[in-house]
Amino acid sequence: MQEWKILEKNLPDSIYVRVYEGRIDLLRAVIIGASGTPYHDGLFFFFDIQFPSHYPNKPPKKDGLVCLSLINTWHGTEKENWNPSESTVLLSIQALVLNAKPFFNEPGYNFGDLSTWKKESLAYNEDTFVLSCRTMLAVLNKPPKHFEGFVAQHFRERAETILIASKAYIDGKVKVGDHIPIENTASSSFSSTISGEANKKFQDSMGIIYSKLLLAFIKNGSSLEDYVGDNIWMITCLTIKL
Question: Which residues cross the membrane (predicted)?
Fold first, then answer.
């Protein structure tokens, strides 16, 4: 099976799978959001995949709703449709869905000159990152079965990166999804701010989520004392509510 050969030899560090010994046609995959996208460092577990008997002549089936011409859930151009000799579902979903500018993923919509949609695209990235952070909290609170250890280890390793990026976004130092020069310190600084002020709605949402993430990461075993600082009041309130 083409997909299995790729997974065995060339599985990217950002994709992990669990398989069923008695059912080689089934697998569950998790994709780590890539750097340079509003999904960065998040975990996305919505990939339960079945390979039909006529695979790879027909694309695999995915549990859940997604509009993607690659797996025949949306019409597309010849280049966008499933190609039995070249297409691989996990790598394609990572590249086509969890990308740097998801605003332009809307199927069947002709955006014309993409440069005229910069403001809308940035706002969409901000909303996407907020949802991604909420997903992080949900996954930490209730990790998928058989992925418990993986989830805990992932966020222990990525907690500081996520917090530094979140703070930079809140302060308007960089645009959401841009590559960030992460330093191993809570006081990472950036040479200049982006043009214009950060979105107030985004700042307010992320201010609360930042404290929730910090608390969740500490409970998960991360040493983040240097990050508590001004967030101690919010963390105390959240702890009391819990």
Answer: none
The label of the residue with tokens 């600082």 reads 229
The CA-based angle 97-130-76, given to 5 degrees, is 20
Q: Assign 31 to helix, strand or coil.
A: strand
- Rounded to 10 deg, the angle between the 118-141 and 148-170 helix axes is 140
Report residue 100 as tokens. Answer: 């740097």
Whether the full predicted model's pTM is greater than 0.70, yes or no, is yes
Q: Which CATH class is domain 1-100?
A: alpha beta
- Considering 67, 100, 131, 228, which one is annotated as catalytic? 67
Q: Give the tens place of pLDDT for each residue, 97-134.
A: 788 888 887 665 666 776 778 888 899 999 999 999 99
Dihedral of CA 86/91/97/99: which sign? negative
Per-residue pLDDT averaged across 185-191, rounded?
A: 45
Residue whose structure tokens are 């959001």: 33
- The torsion of the CA quartet 158, 162, 164, 166, rounded to 10 degrees, works out to 180
| Cβ 176 vs Cβ 132: under 8 Å | no
As a whole number of angstroms, the distance between CA 130 and CA 124 comes to 10
Per the annotation, the verdict on 133 as an active-site residue is no
